[in-house]
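Lab channel / #folding
Pinned by the channel admin:
"Please post every new chain as: sequence first, then the structure tokens as a reply. Keep commentary short and put observations after the output so the thread stays searchable."

First post following the new format, from NK:
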Amino acid sequence: MKILITEERQQLILLSLNQKGAVKVSDLVTQLNTSESTIRRDLVQLEDMNYLRRVHGGAVSVQSKVIERSYKDKQMQNNNQKDLIAKSATELISDGDSIYLDSGTSIYEMIKYLKNKKVLVVTNGISHVEALIDHEIPCILLGGKVKPMTKAVIGHATLKALENYRFDKCFLGTNGVHLTYGFTTPDPEEAYIKERAMMLAKETFILADDSKFGEVTFTKFADLNQVQIITNLEENLKDYQEKTTIRVV
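Reply from TO:
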């Protein structure tokens, strides 16, 4: 196999990052037929040039604070981590619970694990409804304006519809988890829905894979101490654990 020079290697890393949104060091070592130390040096250099942000085990794209990836793009990112987090989240649900599932792709992964639980689901996720029906899970889809990019129902009508319900547990996704700025999402209208759903629930859980930590997007919807976090991140959690409860899968 051809030995790649630094510039070629880094271009291929950026190409992979652009396609997937996140890359793992282990995958790049195999893909580029080089050493782990070489890949880590490449990632350091690319981070210095603001092309990416390093996270535990790899790197993620530098996010815009206001521009959000499409639902389809998000579905292709960090699938294994999302699945583990989602499975852990459903273990917290008891028969008889009324639960709120927001429109995020991490939350979507919970649905297949709810099949044998006796629950009622309220959601603003267009994509969630078909899966809930397929698994014969009783559900209510909130009305309102449909946002094509994230397949979420948002707006004043959605907020008004939410007021009819109370939840035992609320499960939310997030675009960023930050020690100072809390939980954030690019769209203020989606943030309002998340914030209101939290207020109507006894307990709220945020599902966040390791790529979300340290990120900040446009609109804050919660402080760290308002929720519990379910994540696959295992390192550098001490400061977060001082502010909230963290469940590591």
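NK: The chain is about 35% helix and 25% strand.
TO: also worth noting, The chain has two domains: 6-61, 71-248.
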